[in-house]
Specification:
alpha/beta; about 20% strand; 11 strands; four-stranded antiparallel sheet; disordered C terminus
Amino acid sequence: MWRAKAAGLMLFAITGRPAGWCDHIARMWPGDAVVGENGAFYFRYDTAVKKLERCYVTDAAMRRTNRTRLDVIATQILCEVPGSAMATDQAYREADIAIDYCEDVTRLPVESVLRIKRLMETAGLTAKISSIHVNGWFGEYDKLTTTKRMMRESFGVDLDTDKSHYVFVGDSPNDQSMFGFFPHAVGVANVRDLVAQLDTMPAYVSAARCGAGFVEVVAAILDACPKCDGVTTGR
């Protein structure tokens, strides 16, 4: 990411991780902004005034009301799906619940993961499966809708017109809206582990898995970018 930033490229983190993480990411990572909790908000650190800008899809009062309802639903799911647990980052979330199925618990079978998703949907939530959690929230937003809003409001970019100028890198079912929208969408190699749960695959898949796959994508972009002459790719 630092090499890409040094080359003058714009960088955005689009993640299912919580607001607490995203506050840190926006302030400390070499990126321009972050979309978090699968589209619940975007954060952008304004270096000129040294202030973090926070933009949410729903207001604070609605988030508080939803939190009570979400906690009840989460408790029901944990009772009905043995082996599941609240994600250890749940305390830092503002708009969703995250049920852990393999990050800090023994990996659950696919049937259990899908049951968690169905229970969320039956309770009226939008539910998405990531590579480690099943996330659920009230509302119709997702990573793509909030990414479009962020780019329009904070950067004056109409992604419907300019999407071919950007590369998206992801790894799981909750990235499908992005995979389907961006013509230059890339899945790191571990996306193949979840192919049975994907209706939309990315246009490209890296050779390497996880973070190494992201490094591979960045290196390919820098090698192909005329304005990146002289920037080392680390390969």
